[in-house]
């Protein structure tokens, strides 16, 4: 592709308006995630506890903004002031849970629809990460770590509110902590936040901002579709295992086990000789 045409495409991606189509895709996947988390009891729960079902779905949809605002000392509920976006989320929630013959849920789960919605959701995620980094940079111009944290939370706030979201539905799962087992979306949002901060605050990245942004979009969309179509769920895992082995004691723990086994075998051999 011609470089100028590629740059023009990147500029068009940056200018994409998220409302309403990308918000619909985001809300659809959030409602599907809540329904799948409920499991086989989803339909019965939605009939018996519609308020809890709605609240938990809205928390997933608006979690990034709520958590980021809480950490920045801003009104936690301010993401809900966007009434059209709230109405879109509510409409999608209703279609997923309450349409006759479960048509809304079946359409949302239909593979072509899910693939398109997932690609749009990753474009939406990249925008949220960038907005989070930009907003934090205005408040704390020299605090890189705050920019990275806010960008990550904006990108995958639902992972960090899972405990509360399930608690709203009456399920207490204290082990559902994103810090203990971060998902691919948290790792990807973290990486995207770091790249955006480096692009914004340093001269280390010489490429135009539009290309950096477009590259992150391609990365997120590619691995999201790979997880759906090819079953590749976490491409970071091999690098994490290598990093843990080198820098976080993995090699030394393995070496200690090998030496311990060797010493144990020597001790057993000496005991056998003594017994003879």
Automatic annotation (TrEMBL):
Family label: Belongs to the TMEM38 family.
Keyword Amino-acid biosynthesis: no
One GO CC term on file: membrane
A matching Pfam family: TRIC
TM helices/strands, residue ranges: 51-72, 84-101, 139-159, 179-198, 210-230
Compartments reported by the entry: Endomembrane system
Membrane topology according to the record: Multi-pass membrane protein
Keyword Cell membrane part of the UniProt annotation: no
Record protein name field: TRIC channel
A molecular function (GO) term: potassium channel activity
């Amino acid at each position: 592709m011609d470089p100028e045409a590629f740059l023009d495409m990147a500029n068009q991606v940056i200018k994409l308006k998220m409302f309403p189509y990308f918000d619909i895709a985001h809300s659809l996947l959030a409602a599907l995630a809540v329904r799948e988390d409920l499991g086989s009891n989803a339909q019965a729960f939605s009939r018996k506890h519609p308020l809890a079902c709605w609240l938990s779905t809205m928390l997933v949809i608006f979690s990034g903004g709520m958590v980021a605002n809480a950490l920045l000392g801003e009104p936690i509920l301010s993401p809900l002031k966007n009434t059209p976006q709230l109405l879109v989320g509510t409409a999608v929630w209703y279609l997923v849970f309450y349409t006759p013959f479960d048509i809304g849920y079946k359409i949302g789960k239909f593979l072509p629809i899910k693939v398109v919605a997932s690609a749009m959701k990753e474009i939406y995620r990249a925008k949220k990460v960038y907005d989070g980094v930009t907003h934090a940079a205005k408040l704390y111009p020299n605090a890189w770590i705050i920019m990275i944290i806010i960008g990550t939370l904006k990108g995958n706030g639902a992972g960090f509110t899972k405990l509360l979201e399930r608690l709203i539905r009456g399920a207490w799962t204290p082990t559902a902590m994103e810090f203990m087992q971060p998902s691919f979306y948290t790792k990807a949002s973290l990486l995207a936040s770091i790249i955006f901060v480096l692009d914004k605050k340093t001269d280390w990245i010489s490429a135009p901002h539009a290309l950096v942004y477009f590259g992150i979009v391609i990365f997120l969309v590619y691995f999201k579709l790979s997880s759906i179509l090819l079953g590749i769920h976490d491409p970071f895992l091999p690098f994490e295992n290598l990093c843990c082995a080198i820098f976080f004691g993995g090699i030394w723990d393995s070496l200690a086990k090998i030496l311990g086994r060797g010493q144990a075998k020597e001790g057993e051999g000496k005991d056998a000789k003594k017994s003879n």
